[in-house]
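Lab meeting, item 3. Inverse folding demo.
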């Protein structure tokens, strides 16, 4: 299955053409942990596990970072895909607050680690602004703000005038949340892979795993040219691949669309946005907007249910057209602007908008990190942290929030 179509902005940059190539796996290797998937989740897991002294081998079927990671808009958001009010209705206020706090910690730890490792990925700390253009959505957004404040979560309310002052958007109101960030996802992934390799991790690409078997308390990964023996395997593929068909019903595969403008003049950029921030709206599915360090506006959204790999070009054309209309509605001054880049990405979402992290009873010696929705980079770090704790037989209490066995409140 192709994880993206079109040309993401990140792949057009000179740094992407100078990326490190990793060998194809051949032979037999014995390690502590094998990681399947060379996107941002696998890369972060390889780093954290190897940093902890675990012998790691990572295998990627294609090229590392060139799948869903390259299609990402790299919003390092702490807010889940579902509103705090929705999570409270489903799990109760106490659990909803724990979920939020866990994602806050994931976003914070990810940015701190990028800075500690000095990964050059255009990392920028920023606020997020959750806004509405629609009068009928304003009461719900105000309730969301009250519920968050009642739970002690950070943020402040923006009036229409303040929203326009900060973003250039003429909306009805918004919630501003501090503590988020944005980055170049491809460069971030490459940086974590380099850090993992420097700590002894073995990285392989163009090495599709054809079969995983468990025997005598160990797991064996078969590839075309060899086998890897491990004590545990981490599945970091983003969604339930065909090898894990029994899990597929827990996920819904979605296509998302993204456009990026040309480099806009400084004067126009300053008119539209005074402070660095990321934005998303109350539409369902929501739209999200961010500015790059070189003055490009990126807009994503128009998510739709993935049904076939056929017709990708037609879908991308239609999705780009809808995003251009949205661009003109949000920023009338950009109405004539045509996108310089447009792409489609594939991601998996879950019924409650939260990932699945941890073991599953059907698959001994397996650990999973799947279904990130729109929080891919934040969840990638949180997932790797929780899986490392699990591997070390020190499971963190937050693992239950994202486990396959989580249940609704009664």
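The presenter then showed the designed sequence:
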């Amino acid at each position: 299955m192709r994880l993206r179509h079109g040309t993401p902005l990140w792949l057009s940059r000179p740094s992407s053409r100078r990326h490190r190539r990793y060998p194809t796996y051949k032979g037999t290797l014995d390690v502590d942990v094998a990681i399947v998937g060379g996107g941002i989740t696998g890369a972060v897991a390889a780093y954290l596990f190897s940093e902890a002294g675990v012998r790691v081998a990572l295998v990627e079927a294609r090229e590392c970072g060139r799948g869903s990671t390259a299609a990402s808009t790299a919003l390092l958001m702490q807010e889940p895909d579902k509103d705090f009010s929705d999570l409270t209705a489903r799990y109760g206020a106490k659990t909803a607050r724990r979920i939020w706090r866990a994602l806050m910690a994931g976003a914070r730890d990810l940015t701190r680690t990028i800075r500690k490792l000095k990964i050059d990925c255009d990392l920028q700390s920023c606020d997020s602004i959750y806004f509405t253009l629609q009068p009928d959505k304003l009461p719900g957004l105000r309730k969301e703000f009250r519920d968050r404040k009642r739970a002690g979560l950070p943020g402040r309310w923006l009036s229409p005038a303040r929203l326009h002052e900060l973003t250039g958007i003429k909306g009805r109101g918004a919630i501003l949340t501090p503590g988020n960030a944005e980055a170049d996802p491809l460069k971030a992934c490459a940086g974590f892979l380099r850090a993992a390799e420097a700590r002894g991790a073995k990285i392989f690409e163009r090495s599709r795993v054809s079969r995983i078997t468990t025997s005598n308390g160990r797991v064996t990964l078969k590839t075309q040219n060899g086998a890897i023996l491990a004590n545990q395997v981490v599945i970091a593929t983003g969604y339930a691949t065909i090898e894990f068909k029994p899990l597929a019903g827990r996920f819904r595969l979605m296509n998302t669309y993204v456009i990026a403008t040309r480099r806009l003049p400084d004067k126009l950029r300053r008119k539209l946005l005074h402070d660095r921030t990321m934005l998303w709206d109350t539409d369902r599915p929501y739209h999200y907007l961010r500015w790059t360090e070189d003055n490009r506006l990126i807009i994503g959204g128009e998510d739709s249910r993935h049904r076939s790999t056929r017709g990708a070009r037609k879908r991308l054309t239609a999705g780009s057209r809808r995003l251009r209309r949205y661009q003109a509605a949000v920023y009338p001054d950009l109405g004539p602007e045509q996108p310089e880049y447009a792409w489609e990405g594939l991601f998996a979402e879950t019924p409650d908008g939260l990932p699945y992290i941890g073991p599953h009873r059907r698959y001994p010696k397996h650990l999973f990190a799947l279904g990130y929705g729109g929080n891919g980079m934040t969840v990638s770090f949180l997932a790797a942290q929780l899986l490392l704790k699990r591997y070390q037989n020190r499971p963190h209490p937050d693992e239950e929030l994202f486990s396959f066995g989580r249940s609704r409140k009664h």
